[in-house]
Amino acid sequence: xxxxxxxxxxxxxxxxxxxxxxxxxxxxxxxxxxxxxxxxxxxxxxxxxxxxxxxxxxxxxxxxxxxxxxxxxxxxxxxxxxxxxxxxxxxxxxxxxxxxxxxxxxxxxxxxxxxxxxxxxxxxxxxxxxxxxxxxxxxxxxxxxxxxxxxxxxxxxxxxxxxxxxxxxxxxxxxxxxxxxxxxxxxxxxxxxxxxxxxxxxxxxxxxxxxxxxxxxxxxxxxxxxxxxxxxxxxxxxxxxxxxxxxxxxxxxxxxxxxxxxxxxxxxxxxxxxxxxxxxxxxxxxxxxxxxxxxxxxxxxxxxxxxx
Length: 308
Ligand SMILES: [Zn+2]
Description:
Layout: H1 2-48, E1 60-73, E2 76-83, H2 91-95, H3 97-108, H4 113-116, E3 119-129, E4 134-138, E5 146-151, H5 158-175, E6 180-181, E7 194-195, E8 198-200, H6 205-213, H7 218-223, H8 231-240, H9 254-267, H10 276-279, H11 285-305
Parallel strand pairs: 3-5
Antiparallel strand pairs: 1-2, 1-3, 4-5, 6-8, 7-8
Helix pairs in contact: 1-11, 5-9
The structure holds zinc ion.
Zinc ion (ZN) binds near residues 167, 171 and 256.
């Protein structure tokens, strides 16, 4: 009997020690990757200034136009399926296929293929500088494949351009098929955060983020009709909670909030206090590693584009 108790005690102690060691290793890994990312940000900021606190020029609006559309396969531009031959102003750009490749490379060179492979259509657009900069939209019902929209004129504001690409990537990361329940279309009610017609997985980033930051806001958000694309409504909601959100745009809904907070997570130093939403990402070792990876690539890509 005594021997059995001793045996159980040894096993329990071993499990406790093992769990402690795993947790310690996880924390160590987070610290190392955080420091790698911070180091790159310090270097980029010393040369080019902050990527999130800046003024962008927005005085050059035009009517929204689609310019070229490509099918993308395995992260390569394949077939050009549309070219806007009516535009006079952007005629040179429409004919410049090497420029189209460069724009795709801007995105492709920043993120791992695991993610860029989800993009199956690239649509290059313009509406001048500073309005609709980029977007992603699911092509299929299951969020497996995506269209990436990029306004080529945004390249003129290169810091803004890169931070927008990081924001769009945040949507892919949090709304893709690996974050959602593929069987949920059959049910009419989600017990987790609903992503279009899908229910997010219980442990998905968006569901955890929603549970922590949005459940208590939802009633007020609905009462103020923030989701109805009216900037006045958005502002009246944002002004009450401005210390919680990283930007006014983040108050649009949980999906924009997580994408904006993600962008701040990537582009700000870990010891800068942008609130709980940005700290949220530091709880995930894989995201802290992804941050360091994206920043390593940004440090190579950004100097190439600077001054475009
Ligand atoms: Zn967005």
